[in-house]
């Protein structure tokens, strides 16, 4: 016999999919759902937790659960895709806001990550990515000045990778990535629309050229409701 919280979860999913509760509307409270399904509050919480895990709702502290858009954008994890390329592919209405562009001396952490010397400098680029009028991605890039001697605000508003490949003739080859879920920083809250969201999904990448030289460290910090992070895997039989 199926556990009751799973039955409730499946019924809630059907209601959301049938637009009984449209996106951006609040689900009934836990107490109301308890009465609706004649069950315990703990059972309702288990069903809601599963809804949140599967991307149907976002729990907002002190308010309840809001239905989010189940048609998330697929963000490819295994590939190296710039935001502008993704926006063009998905035909999104976007804007890039350059919050910071500065050439600075690499601190100890960046020296270690990018294998830099004490006197080496890096470009620090902080950009908010807006989709349909909402700031949902914060990109923080650090690029080795020896590889990228010049950057402008106009380049950063367009596409850094397009500039590197088309103007500088560089070939971006591969990246090592780590995906973590973190609490938003103060910077995240200032530069993203995060009201009600208690986590951000962070993709940390070390990016290499075709000669295997490391030239970039980036953190791409995402609001969790807009993207589904996808990969393709193939089993290799030995």
UniProtKB/TrEMBL annotation:
This is Trehalose operon repressor. It comes from Virgibacillus necropolis. Coiled coil: none annotated. Keywords: DNA-binding, Repressor, Transcription, Transcription regulation. GO terms for molecular function: DNA binding; DNA-binding transcription factor activity. SMART domains: HTH_GNTR, UTRA. InterPro entries: Bact_HTH_transcr_reg, Chorismate_lyase_/UTRA_dom_sf, TreR, Tscrpt_reg_HTH_GntR, UTRA, WH-like_DNA-bd_sf, WH_DNA-bd_sf. Residues 2-70 form the HTH gntR-type domain. The keyword Zinc does not apply.
């Amino acid at each position: 016999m199926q556990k009751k919280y799973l039955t409730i979860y499946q019924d809630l999913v059907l209601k959301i999919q049938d637009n009984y509760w449209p996106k951006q509307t609040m689900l009934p409270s836990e107490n109301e759902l308890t009465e609706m399904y004649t069950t315990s509050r703990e059972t309702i919480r288990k069903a809601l937790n599963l809804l949140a895990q599967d991307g149907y709702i976002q729990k907002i502290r002190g308010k309840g659960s809001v239905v989010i858009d189940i048609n998330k954008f697929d963000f490819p994890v295994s590939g190296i895709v710039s935001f502008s390329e993704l926006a063009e592919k998905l035909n999104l209405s976007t804007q890039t806001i350059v919050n910071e562009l500065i050439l600075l001396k690499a601190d100890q952490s960046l020296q270690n990550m990018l294998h830099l010397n004490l006197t080496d400098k890096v470009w620090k680029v902080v950009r908010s990515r807006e989709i349909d009028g909402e700031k949902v991605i914060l990109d923080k890039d650090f690029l080795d000045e020896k590889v990228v001697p010049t950057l402008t605000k106009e380049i950063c508003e367009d596409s850094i990778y397009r500039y590197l490949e088309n103007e500088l003739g560089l070939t971006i080859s591969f990246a090592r990535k780590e995906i973590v879920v973190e609490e938003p920083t103060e910077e995240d809250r200032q530069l993203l629309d995060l009201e009600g969201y208690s986590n951000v999904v962070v993709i940390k990448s070390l990016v290499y050229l075709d000669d295997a030289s490391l030239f970039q460290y980036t953190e791409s910090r995402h609001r969790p409701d807009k993207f589904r992070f996808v990969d393709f895997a193939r089993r290799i039989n030995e």
